[in-house]
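Side project, low priority. Logging it here so it doesn't get lost.
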Amino acid sequence: MAFPFGWLAELGSVAVVNDAHRVVLWDEAGQAAMAYQRDLDGQTLGFEVAGGRVVDRETGSTWRVDGLAVAGPLEGRRLTPIAEAYVAYWFAWAAFHPDTFVRGEE
């Protein structure tokens, strides 16, 4: 599954995409996106943007795009990155993985 930066930017300068047991966090200012497991200590967190910040609905903790909670009950905790997730040039990825599902094109 691919999440184009252009599509993420259309969601906002800060955005989240909750998908099954994963979440993609987006920060347009840093041109950064990363995917994480939503499960932390046996609890599946749901993320949203509130007041220009990424927060989880369960505890109200604030998260950075690098997966670190910087405020709230989970401050100092870190989400587990999806090992297979990384930023790549689409033309290179698509050449080797032509059947990749692209978010925003559904």
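Brief comment: The CA atoms of residues 76 and 87 lie 25 Å apart.
Revisit when time allows.
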